Amino acid sequence: MKKNLLMWDETLFRDPEVFEIDYVPEQFNYRESQMRELAFQIQPGLRGGRPLNTICRGLPGTGKTTSVRKLFSEIEETTKKLVPIHINCQIDNTKFAIFSQIYRRLSGHLPPASGTSFKQVFDAIARLLMKEEIVLLIALDDANYLLYENEMNRVLYSLLRSHEAYPGTRIGVIVIISDMDVDLLQAVDARVSSVFRPSEIYFPPYSGEEIREIVKERVMQGLYPGCLPEEMFALLVEQTQKSGDLRVGIDLLKRAALNTERRAGRSIEREDICRAYTISKYLHLSFSVKTLNDEERAVLRALSVHSMKETEMNAGEVYKAVKESMAIGYTRYYEIIRKFDAMRLINLQYRDGKGRTRVISLRYDPAKIIEYLG
Ligand SMILES: Nc1ncnc2c1ncn2[C@@H]1O[C@H](COP(=O)(O)OP(=O)(O)OP(=O)(O)O)[C@@H](O)[C@H]1O
Ligand SMILES: [Mg+2]
User: Quick check: CB of 62 below 6 Å from ligand 1?
Assistant: First the structure.
């Protein structure tokens, strides 16, 4: 074997960090008006009041998370009295998990894993808020993941009515959501909506020209000059536009450059991009599948197998097929289906016919889903 297999230092990357999934770009254009509106909503929190509640809505890759993260770091640099906490609901998707995160961020450590009740965690949070005279600003990112099993309602209820159980506490909420069809106010009951009253900030998709400028910026920061010929840059922008998600474009750039390095090339060629695209375009699918538990994976697998026969499936009929391959009750099955819909893995539609039938269609090629399920 050749020595120094890992020490290959002929790299195209000037700064690989720039292509990481959690990288917050220095240069962040085209979202000025959304950032300004968001700052306006938060303002009261800087003066000890409760920040106004906000929904940030827009398709994937439209800069919602980045906008909020940037504002949050600005708040952290400005004041200790307003504490912004960003929650990734893909990971923390129950009321208990979310409040444990809040407690961790305020105190520096997680509550004991077992034997702690929700009330104990909330008590501890409220004590901290009151002792330090802190106002909280909670961003529930990817809140689609709270939209099943009524979790959204429970989380918002506790956050927004905290002053009733703990007078003096002030908490504002930013809900970030990438599903355009969800009516959040319908997902919560009257006790929540009467205190929620959010303003909505819309994040439109980037135009072709904006995508081009953003990708160009990344190339200049992350790669050495001359690695990406003009024609290949155009191809990359075109693929990004086709996917409609800027994140796919950034991932594509990274993978294409890695492909070039692998063949010891000096500049990115068409084949490097095309090979990369076959992976990058499934970025969303691959991330989503990783967050599922065993039962959910089994249902998704059964769904995918079934949909090879029929592309539009009746939810009730699919249940019969799913039940043949695993033990699962209808209620749980249907909860999982609703979750897949919220995650944008499937489309769930009502169709008027004999009664209301529910029709499921996959958003991905079933063979691909099965491949990512492993
Ligand atoms: N205006 C911009 N300038 C530079 N980079 C951007 C801009 N908008 C988004 N990005 C980049 O695109 C990627 C996706 O952005 P972000 O994570 O903020 O999107 P999002 O709206 O939260 O998407 P999702 O709904 O899928 O979570 C990130 O890597 C981010 O750095
Ligand atoms: Mg996001």
Answer: yes
Distance CA 222, CA 230 (A): 16
Q: How large is the angle between the packed helices 95-107 and 151-160, nearest 10 degrees?
A: 40
Residue the block writes with tokens 């940037």: 70
Beta carbon of 64 within 6 Å of any ligand 1 atom = yes
The alpha helices in the chain, defined as continuous H runs, are 32-46, 64-78, 95-107, 118-132, 151-160, 162-165, 184-187, 190-196, 208-222, 230-243, 246-262, 270-280, 283-290, 294-307, 315-325, 330-342, 366-373
| Maximum alpha-carbon separation in the chain | 70
Angle subtended at Cα 334 by Cα 340 and Cα 298, rounded to the nearest 5 degrees: 60
Closest approach atom of ligand 1 to CA 24: 31
**Predicted confidence (pLDDT) per residue in 44-81, tens digit:** 999 999 999 999 999 889 999 999 999 999 999 999 99
**Atom of ligand 1 minimally distant from the CA of 203:** 21
For residues 357 and 297, what is the distance between their CA atoms, to the nearest angstrom? Answer: 24
| Ligand 1 atom, smallest distance to 64 CA | 21
pTM here? 0.85
Q: Which residues contact 279 (CB under 8 A, 6 or more apart)?
A: 255
- Read off the pLDDT of residues 338-369 as tens digits, 9 standing for 90 and up: 888 877 899 888 877 666 788 999 999 999 99
Find out whether 313 and 362 touch, Cβ atoms under 8 Å: no
For residue 368 the two structure tokens come to 């691909």
Q: End-to-end distance of the chain based on CA atoms, in angstroms?
A: 31
